[in-house]
Amino acid sequence: MPDDGVFGVEVVTPEQSLYVGGARSVVLATSEGNFTVLDGHTPLVGDVVPCELKVEEPEGTVLRLAVHGGFVQVDTSAGAAEGLAEGDGPLPGLSTRVTVLAGVAELANEIDVPRAELAREAASQRVAELSSGRGGAAESGERSGDADVALAEAERALARAELRLAVATDAAA
User: Fold this and answer.
1) Model's pTM, two decimal places?
2) Rg, the chain, Cα only
3) Which helix (H) or strand (E) holds 152?
4) How many helices (H) and strands (E) does the chain have?
5) Which tens digit of pLDDT belongs to each residue from 82-100?
6) What is the C-alpha to C-alpha distance for residues 98 and 113, in angstroms, rounded to an integer?
7) Distance CA 110, CA 37 (A)
8) Cβ atoms 75, 43 nearer than 8 A
9) I want to staple 137 with a disulfide (CB 3.0 to 4.6 A). Which of 62, 73, 142, 171 is the partner?
């Protein structure tokens, strides 16, 4: 007998499929905010911002992933979850499938914590260096566009490292 409330999920990157199977819920963040997908969710296509993605598997285990941006599609239609989950969704003849396409993502238990800590330290130092150069010219509006780009890149690198560490730490707890 099929599990009630279980739907299909795929999380893929250009390199590999990180998760393919059933789920009771998926939690992630878009530019519109955080949201949870349950069986029978309204169909949508949206962006995924860097976040911790949580997949509650049918037996209750929560799989955590660090996702560094991408896209999500929720499809609730006839046969949408075929091969991923059995049975209908909340409406007869319909099933739900969530597909997350991420440029970069990693399972929490595969995050190299020492490497992420080194990346955080390096990015933090780079942000501090670039921010300290904001005197004089920056105040008069003459700061170079190259400096702005370098600072933004350093801030993104810092955010990536902090996300990786947060996801790895939450999974270990």
Assistant:
1) 0.83
2) 20
3) helix 145-172
4) 2, 10
5) 888 766 666 677 889 999 9
6) 29
7) 25
8) yes
9) 142
